[in-house]
Amino acid sequence: MNILFKAKRFGVLIGAAVLMQWSVSILAQDTIKVGVLHSLSGSMAISETTLKDTVLMMIEEQNKAGGLLGRQLEAVVVDPASDWPLFAEQTRELITQEGVDVIFGCWTSVSRKSVLPVIEELNGLLFYPVQYEGEESSKNVFYTGAAPNQQAIPAVDYLMNEIGAERWVLAGTDYVYPRTTNRILEAYLKAKGVADEDIMINYTPFSHSDWQTIVADIQRFGSTGRKTAVVSTINGDANVPFYIELGNQGVSAEDIPVIAFSVGEEELSGIDTAPLVGHLAAWNYFQSVYSDTNEEFIDTWHSFIGNQSRVTNDPMEATYIGFKMWAEAVEAAGTTDVDAVEQAMIGLEVPNLTGGTAVMNKNHHLSKPVLIGEIQDDGQFDVVWETDGVVAGDAWSDYLEGSRDLVSDWTEPTRCGNYNTVSNRCLGSGSQ
């Protein structure tokens, strides 16, 4: 009798445990998990923390609207801490342990390059929201930031044609994006007839803070009487001391204009911008651009973050566009399955924040407008030049040997990230 009672009791306990496990499993399936892979500490936190908050805001807004496929979205936030191998490690954990359906993350190309083999091996999905060097197209990545032909090349054209620049300083942080972008720009400048001696190239490590000598060198290089401009691919927290030193040494926009690709409203919000008025940045979005969609976005951001003085910036718009497209693709596909969503993404159109439309092309790059803005004393940008319409992002540069013959097309029958149009074959990988 006693044995029978114990057996029955054991059976009840086992049943309860199974039921509990089943319930937890059901609850886990109840949400769509969104990985947020942005540095919240280290050299890139100055830029990336805001993008983490942007994704959380988008998730909150989507959940208010009913979620996706009848399910709520759940953010899984990690901090790769500006540590490039950790980006790869946490990507693996997000997919294999957390079971995320998509990842929004990375800022630097070195973090993206670290993540790339993992996201491809595990067939994950990454939305990369920052300007980058090109020379890549992966089935598992959507590039919602600017390719070189959507930022760097137009910036050089502006400095050459509108300001009359003849000598060029290419100043960057020492990693993949600046070195590749500057390789493209150097080839482009030489194709335009610029001599070797009229190009100065300088690289500094992440978090570089001692800019006194470099800024002095830039001044000497620009003292020949010929118009000199700086094209800056400096990234992260090194931007602040660089711009402070420009002000300290009195390098004005009239003397030597600086155009930056990684300085936006967020980076300028912590410094006195009065000495920097007139210096430039090339992006696809500025907070100061008026449109109804942008005004709504800014209001939503201020409400979410609880701070009316917090600025918006270009990578936030790229995150916004990527998230909106991903949500539409999930609904269209009726699933979060990566392969189905990847195909549903191609050809999607969503409003951008500057009053136009963003289009996702078959190379996983967006069509976007290009804007050049001047720094104002309030830390905002006054748009001084923009393209008539949108520019389709190129995965492969027209100015590099080995790249100019390549195209990316992730639709049938090509389904290739680096298809050689001369040999008519896929090279077998999405990057070089």
Write the layout of secondary structure elements.
Layout: H1 2-30, E1 31-37, H2 45-64, E2 72-78, H3 84-96, E3 102-105, H4 109-121, E4 126-128, E5 141-143, H5 152-163, E6 167-173, H6 176-191, E7 199-204, H7 212-221, E8 228-233, H8 239-248, E9 258-260, H9 265-268, E10 280-283, H10 292-305, H11 314-333, H12 338-345, E11 349-351, E12 357-360, E13 366-368, E14 371-375, E15 381-386, E16 391-392, E17 406-409, E18 416-420, E19 425-426
Parallel strand pairs: 1-2, 1-3, 3-4, 4-5, 6-7, 6-8, 8-9, 9-10
Antiparallel strand pairs: 10-14, 11-12, 12-13, 13-16, 14-15, 17-18, 18-19
What does this molecule look like?
The chain has a domain at 149-264: Response regulator (Rossmann fold), CATH 3.40.50.2300. The strands form 4 sheets. It has a 7-stranded mixed beta sheet with strand order 7-6-8-9-10-14-15, sandwiched between helices. A 5-stranded parallel beta sheet has the order 2-1-3-4-5, with helices on both faces. A hairpin with a 4-residue loop joins strand 18 and strand 19 (425-426). The protein is α/β, with parallel strands linked by helices and 432 residues long. The chain contains 12 helices and 19 strands. The radius of gyration is 24 Å and the shape is globular. The chain has helices spanning 2-30, 45-64, 84-96, 109-121, 152-163, 176-191, 212-221, 239-248, 265-268, 292-305, 314-333, 338-345; strands at residues 31-37, 72-78, 102-105, 126-128, 141-143, 167-173, 199-204, 228-233, 258-260, 280-283, 349-351, 357-360, 366-368, 371-375, 381-386, 391-392, 406-409, 416-420, 425-426. The protein starts with a helix and ends in a 6-residue tail after the last strand. Helix 11 crosses helix 12 (338-345). 39% of the residues lie in helices and 19% in strands.
